[in-house]
Amino acid sequence: MAWLVADIGGTNARFALVDGPGGAPRHRASLPTRGYPDLAAAVAAYLAGHAPAEHVEAACLAVAGPVGGGGFRLTNAGWPADTAERVRARLGLPHLEVVNDFEALARALPSLGPDDLIPVGGPPPTGAGTLAVLGPGTGLGTAGLVPTPAGPVPLPGEGGHVDIPAVTEREVEVMRLLRAERGTASAEYLLSGDGLVRLHRFLSMIHGVRTAPPTAAEIVERRDDPVCAETLETFCALLGSYAGNVALTFGARGGVYLGGGILPRVVDVLRGSAFRARFEDKPPVVDYLRAIPTALIVHPCPAFAGAAARLEQSLTALEAA
């Protein structure tokens, strides 16, 4: 009997089956999130198209949005709010859980090996102590992982919606433009795929440059364009300040890990940027932050391992009850 695991973002809904805890993902597939009206429809399409002969015993679906009280909402996909029980009943599965996507990613951190990580400053990551993970993609996710005698406990949240940590005069100008346009200066409005586009537009306005608005992918590719280059540099600098805030909030002395779909495509920019300097530049706690490792996750889909770990914990508890 198989377990269904999924990582559902605002752009892509990724699915796989695993044969219990520690099982390698199989029947992996990615579907366009906006191609389906809701979560149950996307799951049904995956099972029908990629695993029609499989008997699924349990499922853990990690979604990019707040989860609580049995309900969930995908923040950047336009899907209606729903409940895990309603999704389970529609699919006819014996057991189904919905968790925040960064909760699943946090649960996966202890399973990541050296080949899954690229260091981006500080001492080598050890995985010991309190950990934090954040990642710009369609949105901006954040979570922590706290060690306890009973095992590590994930702490998901909506940290991507805190205020943008502007430091330089140029960043303050950008923040003012953002606040004038959106009525708020949420970090996700700049530190995400759409945020890259928005940041490029604001910098173009500041420089008085008139260009056709590029996509996030085009900004990543056009390293020789001055505004695109400044956009990526500013993005990484702001992310460094944000990551330092996350480290301090969680007390993540064990390390801050970077996920999401954008950063693996700009590794060279990230490592050569002000990211790490801005991460540490928070007097009077510079030494505290200097001792915290930061690393980029390059594993193709670590949330699968986190979802499987959640299922193992839940099903073991049900058997023991």
Automatic annotation (TrEMBL):
<keyword id="KW-0963">Cytoplasm</keyword>
<dbReference type="Pfam" id="PF02685">
    <property type="entry name" value="Glucokinase"/>
</dbReference>
<protein>
    <recommendedName>
        <fullName>Glucokinase</fullName>
        <ecNumber>2.7.1.2</ecNumber>
    </recommendedName>
</protein>
<comment type="similarity">
    <text>Belongs to the bacterial glucokinase family.</text>
</comment>
<feature type="binding site">
    <location>
        <begin position="6"/>
        <end position="11"/>
    </location>
    <ligand>
        <name>ATP</name>
    </ligand>
</feature>
<dbReference type="GO" id="GO:0005536">
    <property type="term" value="F:D-glucose binding"/>
</dbReference>
<keyword id="KW-0324">Glycolysis</keyword>
<keyword id="KW-0808">Transferase</keyword>
<keyword id="KW-0067">ATP-binding</keyword>
<keyword id="KW-0418">Kinase</keyword>
<dbReference type="GO" id="GO:0005829">
    <property type="term" value="C:cytosol"/>
</dbReference>
<dbReference type="InterPro" id="IPR050201">
    <property type="entry name" value="Bacterial_glucokinase"/>
</dbReference>
<dbReference type="GO" id="GO:0004340">
    <property type="term" value="F:glucokinase activity"/>
</dbReference>
<dbReference type="GO" id="GO:0006096">
    <property type="term" value="P:glycolytic process"/>
</dbReference>
<keyword id="KW-0547">Nucleotide-binding</keyword>
<dbReference type="InterPro" id="IPR043129">
    <property type="entry name" value="ATPase_NBD"/>
</dbReference>
<dbReference type="GO" id="GO:0005524">
    <property type="term" value="F:ATP binding"/>
</dbReference>
<dbReference type="InterPro" id="IPR003836">
    <property type="entry name" value="Glucokinase"/>
</dbReference>
